[in-house]
Amino acid sequence: MQVEGKVAVVTGAGGGIGAAIAGSLVAAGAKVLLADLDGDAVHRVASELDPTGKGSALGVRADVADNGEIRDLLDRAERELGPVALYFANAGITGAPGLDADESVWDRAFDVNIRAHVRAAQLLVPRWLDRGEGYFVSTASAAGLLTQIGSATYSVTKHAAVGFAEWLSVTYGDKGIRVSCLCPMGVETALLREGERSGTGLGDMATRAVTSAGKVLEPSEVAEVVLAAIAEEHFLILPHPEVLDMYRYKGADYDRWIAGMRRFQAKLADG
Fold first, then answer.
1. What is the CATH number of the domain that holds 209?
2. In the annotation, is 154 catalytic?
3. What share of the chain is helix, strand, coil (3-state, %, to 5)?
4. Is 101 exposed, middle or buried (0-12, 13-18, 19+ CB in 10 A)?
Protein backbone atom coordinates (compact mmCIF):
# COMPACT_ATOMS: atom_id res chain seq x y z
CA MET A 1 0.00 0.00 0.00
CA GLN A 2 1.18 3.51 -0.82
CA VAL A 3 0.33 6.00 1.93
CA GLU A 4 0.29 9.16 -0.17
CA GLY A 5 -3.20 10.64 -0.17
CA LYS A 6 -4.46 8.15 2.40
CA VAL A 7 -5.92 8.87 5.85
CA ALA A 8 -4.26 7.23 8.84
CA VAL A 9 -5.00 7.08 12.55
CA VAL A 10 -2.02 6.69 14.90
CA THR A 11 -2.61 6.00 18.58
CA GLY A 12 -0.06 6.71 21.27
CA ALA A 13 1.11 9.57 19.07
CA GLY A 14 1.96 12.10 21.77
CA GLY A 15 5.59 11.03 21.60
CA GLY A 16 7.95 8.17 20.88
CA ILE A 17 7.25 5.70 18.10
CA GLY A 18 3.71 6.96 17.51
CA ALA A 19 4.81 10.56 16.95
CA ALA A 20 7.62 9.40 14.67
CA ILE A 21 5.29 7.22 12.59
CA ALA A 22 2.82 10.11 12.28
CA GLY A 23 5.64 12.39 11.14
CA SER A 24 6.79 9.91 8.50
CA LEU A 25 3.24 9.48 7.24
CA VAL A 26 2.70 13.22 6.89
CA ALA A 27 6.05 13.55 5.10
CA ALA A 28 4.93 10.81 2.71
CA GLY A 29 1.74 12.71 1.86
CA ALA A 30 -0.81 11.11 4.19
CA LYS A 31 -3.38 12.86 6.35
CA VAL A 32 -3.05 11.74 9.94
CA LEU A 33 -5.22 11.83 13.03
CA LEU A 34 -2.96 11.53 16.07
CA ALA A 35 -4.49 10.25 19.30
CA ASP A 36 -3.06 10.08 22.79
CA LEU A 37 -4.21 10.10 26.40
CA ASP A 38 -1.94 13.12 26.91
CA GLY A 39 -3.90 15.82 25.11
CA ASP A 40 -1.27 18.53 25.46
CA ALA A 41 1.44 16.30 24.00
CA VAL A 42 -0.57 15.09 21.03
CA HIS A 43 -1.79 18.58 20.13
CA ARG A 44 1.80 19.81 20.28
CA VAL A 45 3.02 17.04 17.95
CA ALA A 46 0.17 17.65 15.51
CA SER A 47 0.92 21.39 15.45
CA GLU A 48 4.57 20.68 14.71
CA LEU A 49 3.62 18.38 11.83
CA ASP A 50 1.04 20.79 10.39
CA PRO A 51 2.12 24.28 11.49
CA THR A 52 0.00 26.07 8.88
CA GLY A 53 -3.18 24.12 9.65
CA LYS A 54 -3.62 22.65 6.17
CA GLY A 55 -5.27 19.55 7.56
CA SER A 56 -2.42 17.05 7.23
CA ALA A 57 -2.29 16.39 10.98
CA LEU A 58 -5.03 16.51 13.60
CA GLY A 59 -4.34 15.89 17.29
CA VAL A 60 -7.06 14.42 19.52
CA ARG A 61 -6.99 13.50 23.18
CA ALA A 62 -8.51 10.05 23.56
CA ASP A 63 -8.38 6.91 25.66
CA VAL A 64 -8.03 4.36 22.88
CA ALA A 65 -8.82 1.50 25.27
CA ASP A 66 -12.40 2.77 25.48
CA ASN A 67 -14.71 1.47 22.77
CA GLY A 68 -16.82 4.63 22.64
CA GLU A 69 -13.77 6.86 22.32
CA ILE A 70 -12.32 4.70 19.55
CA ARG A 71 -15.63 5.01 17.67
CA ASP A 72 -15.63 8.78 18.14
CA LEU A 73 -12.02 8.93 16.97
CA LEU A 74 -12.74 7.04 13.76
CA ASP A 75 -15.88 9.04 13.07
CA ARG A 76 -13.99 12.31 13.53
CA ALA A 77 -11.17 11.17 11.27
CA GLU A 78 -13.61 10.24 8.53
CA ARG A 79 -15.59 13.43 8.99
CA GLU A 80 -12.63 15.83 8.96
CA LEU A 81 -9.95 13.99 6.95
CA GLY A 82 -11.65 11.27 4.92
CA PRO A 83 -12.07 7.47 4.95
CA VAL A 84 -9.54 5.83 7.27
CA ALA A 85 -7.27 3.55 5.26
CA LEU A 86 -4.60 2.81 7.86
CA TYR A 87 -4.83 2.30 11.60
CA PHE A 88 -1.74 2.13 13.81
CA ALA A 89 -2.61 0.52 17.13
CA ASN A 90 0.51 1.89 18.76
CA ALA A 91 -0.51 2.98 22.27
CA GLY A 92 1.04 0.78 24.94
CA ILE A 93 1.91 0.58 28.62
CA THR A 94 4.34 -1.55 30.62
CA GLY A 95 2.00 -2.50 33.45
CA ALA A 96 3.96 -3.43 36.56
CA PRO A 97 6.93 -5.69 37.33
CA GLY A 98 6.69 -9.09 38.95
CA LEU A 99 3.64 -10.82 40.37
CA ASP A 100 2.66 -7.93 42.61
CA ALA A 101 0.47 -6.27 39.97
CA ASP A 102 -3.13 -6.27 41.17
CA GLU A 103 -6.24 -6.94 39.11
CA SER A 104 -6.63 -3.30 38.10
CA VAL A 105 -3.07 -3.17 36.73
CA TRP A 106 -3.61 -6.37 34.74
CA ASP A 107 -6.94 -5.08 33.43
CA ARG A 108 -5.40 -1.82 32.27
CA ALA A 109 -2.50 -3.63 30.57
CA PHE A 110 -4.93 -5.89 28.71
CA ASP A 111 -7.18 -2.93 27.83
CA VAL A 112 -4.39 -0.82 26.34
CA ASN A 113 -2.05 -3.43 24.89
CA ILE A 114 -4.55 -5.85 23.32
CA ARG A 115 -8.24 -5.07 23.82
CA ALA A 116 -7.70 -1.65 22.22
CA HIS A 117 -6.52 -3.49 19.09
CA VAL A 118 -9.51 -5.82 19.12
CA ARG A 119 -12.00 -3.00 19.65
CA ALA A 120 -10.51 -0.92 16.85
CA ALA A 121 -10.57 -3.88 14.47
CA GLN A 122 -14.20 -4.63 15.31
CA LEU A 123 -15.09 -1.12 14.15
CA LEU A 124 -12.73 -0.91 11.19
CA VAL A 125 -12.94 -4.30 9.51
CA PRO A 126 -16.60 -4.00 8.40
CA ARG A 127 -15.85 -0.59 6.86
CA TRP A 128 -12.73 -1.93 5.13
CA LEU A 129 -14.54 -4.99 3.80
CA ASP A 130 -17.10 -2.66 2.20
CA ARG A 131 -14.31 -0.58 0.63
CA GLY A 132 -12.17 -3.54 -0.35
CA GLU A 133 -9.01 -2.41 1.45
CA GLY A 134 -7.52 -1.35 4.76
CA TYR A 135 -4.29 -1.66 6.70
CA PHE A 136 -4.00 -2.50 10.40
CA VAL A 137 -0.59 -2.06 12.04
CA SER A 138 -0.18 -3.47 15.53
CA THR A 139 2.70 -2.27 17.71
CA ALA A 140 3.60 -5.26 19.82
CA SER A 141 7.22 -5.78 20.89
CA ALA A 142 10.07 -8.24 20.66
CA ALA A 143 8.68 -9.24 24.06
CA GLY A 144 5.66 -10.59 22.20
CA LEU A 145 7.89 -13.00 20.30
CA LEU A 146 10.39 -13.70 23.06
CA THR A 147 9.57 -12.49 26.58
CA GLN A 148 10.20 -9.56 28.92
CA ILE A 149 12.36 -10.22 31.94
CA GLY A 150 10.85 -8.55 35.01
CA SER A 151 7.39 -7.72 33.65
CA ALA A 152 4.70 -10.36 33.32
CA THR A 153 2.01 -7.83 32.37
CA TYR A 154 4.04 -6.52 29.44
CA SER A 155 5.18 -9.92 28.19
CA VAL A 156 1.75 -11.55 28.36
CA THR A 157 -0.19 -8.71 26.71
CA LYS A 158 2.40 -8.25 23.96
CA HIS A 159 2.23 -11.97 23.18
CA ALA A 160 -1.53 -11.49 22.89
CA ALA A 161 -1.04 -8.55 20.52
CA VAL A 162 1.10 -10.67 18.21
CA GLY A 163 -1.47 -13.47 18.34
CA PHE A 164 -4.34 -11.16 17.44
CA ALA A 165 -2.43 -9.59 14.55
CA GLU A 166 -1.66 -13.07 13.19
CA TRP A 167 -5.32 -14.07 13.41
CA LEU A 168 -6.46 -10.86 11.75
CA SER A 169 -4.07 -11.36 8.85
CA VAL A 170 -4.98 -15.02 8.36
CA THR A 171 -8.72 -14.29 8.51
CA TYR A 172 -8.93 -11.17 6.34
CA GLY A 173 -5.70 -11.08 4.32
CA ASP A 174 -7.41 -12.45 1.22
CA LYS A 175 -10.18 -9.87 1.50
CA GLY A 176 -8.13 -6.73 0.93
CA ILE A 177 -7.15 -6.12 4.55
CA ARG A 178 -3.44 -5.99 5.22
CA VAL A 179 -1.90 -6.47 8.65
CA SER A 180 1.58 -5.79 10.01
CA CYS A 181 2.96 -6.40 13.48
CA LEU A 182 5.79 -4.21 14.75
CA CYS A 183 8.14 -5.98 17.20
CA PRO A 184 11.14 -3.82 18.13
CA MET A 185 13.54 -4.29 21.01
CA GLY A 186 14.93 -1.16 22.64
CA VAL A 187 13.67 2.19 21.38
CA GLU A 188 14.57 5.44 23.14
CA THR A 189 11.17 6.37 24.50
CA ALA A 190 9.67 7.16 27.90
CA LEU A 191 8.25 3.62 27.96
CA LEU A 192 11.73 2.12 27.78
CA ARG A 193 12.83 3.93 30.94
CA GLU A 194 9.75 3.25 33.05
CA GLY A 195 11.28 0.19 34.64
CA GLU A 196 14.39 1.92 35.90
CA ARG A 197 12.22 4.73 37.25
CA SER A 198 9.93 2.29 39.09
CA GLY A 199 12.15 2.08 42.16
CA THR A 200 12.04 -1.73 42.09
CA GLY A 201 14.76 -4.23 41.34
CA LEU A 202 12.59 -6.08 38.83
CA GLY A 203 11.66 -2.86 37.08
CA ASP A 204 15.28 -1.82 36.75
CA MET A 205 16.12 -5.31 35.51
CA ALA A 206 13.38 -5.06 32.87
CA THR A 207 14.95 -1.91 31.42
CA ARG A 208 18.49 -3.29 31.52
CA ALA A 209 17.36 -6.53 29.89
CA VAL A 210 16.30 -4.52 26.84
CA THR A 211 19.11 -1.96 26.73
CA SER A 212 21.79 -4.66 27.03
CA ALA A 213 20.27 -6.98 24.42
CA GLY A 214 20.99 -4.82 21.39
CA LYS A 215 21.19 -1.31 19.99
CA VAL A 216 18.66 1.17 21.34
CA LEU A 217 17.10 2.84 18.29
CA GLU A 218 15.63 6.29 17.90
CA PRO A 219 11.87 6.43 17.15
CA SER A 220 12.61 7.99 13.75
CA GLU A 221 14.67 4.93 12.80
CA VAL A 222 11.76 2.67 13.68
CA ALA A 223 9.30 4.81 11.72
CA GLU A 224 11.48 4.56 8.62
CA VAL A 225 11.45 0.76 8.86
CA VAL A 226 7.68 0.74 9.42
CA LEU A 227 6.87 2.72 6.28
CA ALA A 228 9.21 0.58 4.18
CA ALA A 229 7.52 -2.58 5.50
CA ILE A 230 4.06 -1.21 4.73
CA ALA A 231 5.09 -0.46 1.16
CA GLU A 232 6.08 -4.13 0.81
CA GLU A 233 3.14 -5.34 2.94
CA HIS A 234 5.34 -7.40 5.27
CA PHE A 235 3.56 -8.90 8.27
CA LEU A 236 6.43 -8.96 10.76
CA ILE A 237 8.27 -5.65 11.13
CA LEU A 238 11.62 -6.07 12.89
CA PRO A 239 13.64 -2.85 13.29
CA HIS A 240 16.16 -5.06 15.13
CA PRO A 241 16.83 -7.87 12.59
CA GLU A 242 18.56 -9.98 15.24
CA VAL A 243 15.16 -10.60 16.87
CA LEU A 244 14.41 -13.07 14.08
CA ASP A 245 17.52 -15.09 14.98
CA MET A 246 16.49 -15.05 18.65
CA TYR A 247 12.99 -16.20 17.70
CA ARG A 248 14.35 -19.04 15.60
CA TYR A 249 16.66 -20.07 18.43
CA LYS A 250 13.69 -20.13 20.79
CA GLY A 251 11.60 -22.26 18.46
CA ALA A 252 14.45 -24.66 17.70
CA ASP A 253 14.94 -25.70 21.34
CA TYR A 254 12.54 -24.18 23.84
CA ASP A 255 14.18 -25.73 26.92
CA ARG A 256 17.62 -24.49 25.92
CA TRP A 257 16.21 -21.01 25.25
CA ILE A 258 14.52 -20.86 28.68
CA ALA A 259 17.72 -21.99 30.36
CA GLY A 260 19.60 -19.26 28.51
CA MET A 261 17.07 -16.64 29.59
CA ARG A 262 17.44 -17.77 33.20
CA ARG A 263 21.21 -17.30 32.94
CA PHE A 264 20.69 -13.87 31.40
CA GLN A 265 18.32 -12.91 34.22
CA ALA A 266 20.83 -14.10 36.82
CA LYS A 267 23.54 -11.91 35.28
CA LEU A 268 21.22 -8.92 35.34
CA ALA A 269 20.37 -9.60 38.98
CA ASP A 270 24.08 -9.63 39.80
CA GLY A 271 24.42 -6.20 38.23
1. 3.40.50.720
2. yes
3. 55, 15, 30
4. middle
| Rounded average pLDDT per 10-residue block, the chain, 271 residues | 94 98 98 98 97 93 95 97 98 88 94 97 98 97 94 95 98 98 94 77 84 92 98 97 97 97 92 73
DSSP 8-state code for residue 128 = H
* Residue 53 is assigned to a structural domain of this protein: yes
What is the SS3 assignment for 257?
helix
DSSP annotation of 241 reads T
Evaluate whether residue 161 is within a structural domain. Answer: yes
3-state SS, residue 19:
helix
**Residue 1 located in a structural domain:** no
| pTM across the whole model | 0.95
Q: State the catalytic residue, choosing from 154, 247, 249, 254.
A: 154
Q: How many domains does the chain have?
A: 1
Three-point CA angle 92, 166, 173, nearest 5°: 120
Domain that holds residue 242: 7-269
Q: What is the dihedral of CA 42, 80, 168, 96, to 10 degrees?
A: 20
